Amino acid sequence: MALQMTLKQQRACTRASSRQPFRAAAPAVRPRRCAVRVQATAAPNDLNNGLGFQTMRDGVKVAANETLLTPRFYTTDFAEMEELFSKEINPNLDMDELNACLQEFRNDYNKCHFVRNETFKTAADKVTGATRKIFIEFLERSCTAEFSGFLLYKELARRLKTSSPEVAEMFLLMSRDEARHAGFLNKALSDFNLALDLGFLTKNRTYTYFKPKFIIYATFLSEKIGYWRYITIYRHLQRNPDNQLYPLFEYFENWCQDENRHGDFLAACLKARPELLNTWEAKLWSKFFCLSVYVTMYLNDHQRTAFYEALGLTTRQFNQHVIIETNKSTERLFPVVPDVEDPAFFQLLNEMVDVNSKLVALDADTNTPAFLKVLMKLPLQERLASQLIRILFCKEKHCGSVDVAGSAAAQQLAF
């Protein structure tokens, strides 16, 4: 989705873009545009031969198979979501913090940030072999996740326009940010001579249904963990510029601030409806969604260790840092979070990685008959299921926002 701009705004963006990393001198006859289209195309190239990617047509990649660990598209009960934020139904809805978030979104700090230059394609052509394959997979997963957010937020904006226009505008502006991210990533894929047909994905991807409150819990965590992933990679590469294989990562510092602002808005949504934070059900769901997001990321990233090693990162250290920092951010809001700094927590996660790695290896084994694979998987699946149950009962921390009556933080403040 391209952002429509006036000529004056385009010129302002062109001036601002001169301060961007890896920025080459702009052509004298054509000003740069701030926006990047969500749809991208690319030409075939021998660099991708033998990497195992299938194409729908020249330069357009067949999307990766959907699994439990791949980014998903979401839908919800939009009528119920309208009720959550309707001013007519909830005349005492606290809009102060929500309106402060709205002003932040209107400022559009990254309007001129996503400006490409010639170094992208040059850098991509230097990434070859196995490293090229994992870069393409990273870009596809990231693009799919951002595009999923765009679709959900845009539909929420459309459905809430009448019942809660301020909240609708905030979802619309978040969809604007996610569209920029998805477009920037899909254009990066085209540097590697592939791209996703996002229109095709919209129509053919499986949509997962979540209740409205679950959507808010999950997207809040997704935005906050996205912030810590991006800023951690950015800071690491600033300290280790020799591992900066592709200029995309130079954009992560400003980019992750979009994720942080989105998370702050979703936190304000939860605080505007305190029953989502101060009941016994809220405590159960808070811990459950934290664990779901942390476990999914941990297992997913350990399947792709080669990507983090290519950037000079240690996968286990990176994941544990991101989870600990995300949990610190989350405990300022959620009534209960897992105690991720308890040594037993990551010990159990590491055991799950070992079991999951064996399952992945079995799936990749082409020499073992299918029926035998099923039998060999059973004890591993049973062990993984038992570990998931154990982690649900891991040590927890009672916390929460001081703005929410009944939270552990508010009760401590009373003394």
Automatic annotation (TrEMBL):
Coiled coil: none
Domain Rubrerythrin diiron-binding span(s) in chain numbering: 137-268
Enzyme class per UniProt: oxidoreductase
Pfam families according to UniProt: Rubrerythrin
GO biological process: chlorophyll biosynthetic process; photosynthesis
Catalytic activity entry: Mg-protoporphyrin IX 13-monomethyl ester + 3 NADPH + 3 O2 + 2 H(+) = 3,8-divinyl protochlorophyllide a + 3 NADP(+) + 5 H2O
InterPro entries listed in its UniProt record: AcsF, Ferritin-like_SF, Rr_diiron-bd_dom
Keywords: Chlorophyll biosynthesis, Iron, Metal-binding, NADP, Oxidoreductase, Photosynthesis
Pathway connected to this protein: Porphyrin-containing compound metabolism; chlorophyll biosynthesis
One of the record's GO molecular function terms: magnesium-protoporphyrin IX monomethyl ester (oxidative) cyclase activity
Signal peptide (UniProt feature, chain positions): none
Gene Ontology CC terms: chloroplast thylakoid membrane
Cofactor(s) needed: Fe cation
Enzyme Commission number: 1.14.13.81
Domain of life: Eukaryota
Similarity comment: Belongs to the AcsF family.
Cited NCBIfam families: AcsF, PRK13654.1
HAMAP family the record matches: AcsF
Protein name: magnesium-protoporphyrin IX monomethyl ester (oxidative) cyclase
Species of origin: Pleodorina starrii
